[in-house]
Amino acid sequence: LTSDQPDNKIKTVPVTDKSRLKVSSLNVNGITKNSHYLNYEVLNSDICFACEIHHESKQQLDDYMYISHKKISSKVSERSEKYGRGKNGMGFIYNSDIVLTGPIQYYGNRIGVMELDSVAIIGVYMAYNDNKSESYEELLSDLQLIEELQLSLSKSKEVIMVGDFNIDLSRRDCFSIALVKFLHSIDYIIADIEYGQQNVDYTWHSIRYDEEDRPYIISSWVDHVLVPRKSKLIEYIEIIASGLNEGDHNSCLLYTSDAADE
What we know:
Elements: E1 22-27, H1 31-43, E2 47-51, H2 58-64, E3 70-75, E4 90-95, E5 105-107, E6 111-115, E7 119-125, H3 133-153, E8 158-164, H4 174-186, E9 188-190, H5 191-194, E10 204-209, E11 215-220, E12 223-228, E13 234-240, E14 251-256
Parallel strand pairs: 1-2, 7-8
Antiparallel strand pairs: 1-14, 2-4, 3-4, 5-6, 6-7, 8-12, 9-12, 10-11, 13-14
């Protein structure tokens, strides 16, 4: 999306204050179901990383976006079977005046990298712990790749990681242990937990029903923002629970404090 899109697009003012960036991440839970909230997130951030878009083509995603002064880069959902919903789908939607230092890169279906002059954003959608060895091996492989990307990118810029990690540290399972080891190996912290108390204590929730058909809610904290332990880049992080959101994941919003895109 660029500023020359049709007039039915919502107008936004290009970023003029280069000393601060607003970066959001959202597991969309399907563009056809939750397009209005994705547009809301895009409207209220300079960069939005989205996963589980479930878009069948780049044109489909563009058709659901009605915010002007934005550019879209995405990895289209891949089908594992002939029929049924496409798997995942991720992308970055960002202000058209933001200058990138290279093309946005995607590594498989779970990792995307966006590079600005002094900061790189790694967006992730990690494997879910379904108690199968294949999922755990996929997680370890992805964490190793992310560590290699971080090592390379950190030579010239600060690297932050955002997205759906599908890991709740309170569960203390093999997935959470793997994430803790990963954090120690690169000296990173989970900033959404470390940077003060949040208004909500979950990023994912689902309504279930007991044997007597009474509803109850289960929740977990699986969407995260990872930053270097000694980072001074992040000023503020907020987990946002919104009534506008038709998906099952809250969004994460962070503010940078430096001129990250100059």
